[in-house]
Specification:
The protein is α+β, with helices and mostly antiparallel strands. It has one domain. It is 38% helix and 26% strand. The chain contains two helices and five strands; from the N terminus they run ββαβαββ. The strands form two sheets. The chain has a three-stranded antiparallel β-sheet, with no helix packed on it. Strands 1-3 form a two-stranded antiparallel ribbon. Strand 4 and strand 5 form a beta hairpin. The longest helix is centred in the middle third of the chain and has 43 residues. The model has no long low-confidence stretch (mean pLDDT 76).
Length: 128
């Protein structure tokens, strides 16, 4: 039995263009990024959790029990997903966003990207 969690919690897309980066040898220009909004949707996060069961290799009792348990968990999850989406998601998503982002100030994937660029001899070089 295994658990697969497929979620986009904390995911973010960003792009930035350095219009006039400083020359090589000067202090680099930095731009900071971070992912706020750790939980965008409780229902999306919960829907991304899957219990995986594998057929037993032999006809043992333990394998059959594990297979039956995995299927029962899958059935219960399928029954609870609409309840979570309709009732709990509108209440929990804004509450968790307020708690994690605003109250605790949590962020994820905090990075800082710097650049220097020099043009000479008709070609451009990007150096880290």
């Amino acid at each position: 039995m295994g658990v697969l969690i497929d979620t986009d919690a904390g995911a973010t897309d960003w792009e930035h263009t350095y219009n006039w980066p400083p020359e090589i040898g000067e202090a680099p220009a930095y731009h900071a990024y971070s992912s706020t909004e750790l939980v965008s949707s409780v229902s999306q996060t919960i829907n991304g959790i899957h219990v995986l069961t594998y057929e037993p290799q032999d006809d043992g009792t333990l394998g059959a029990v594990m297979d039956l348990t995995g299927k029962a968990i899958g059935d219960v999850t399928a029954l609870l997903n609409p309840v979570v989406e309709d009732l709990l998601d509108p209440l929990l998503s804004p509450t968790l966003a307020l708690l994690l982002d605003d109250t605790l100030g949590m962020d994820l994937g905090k990075v800082e990207v710097g650049t220097n660029l020099t043009c000479g001899s008709g070609d451009a070089r990007l150096v880290n």
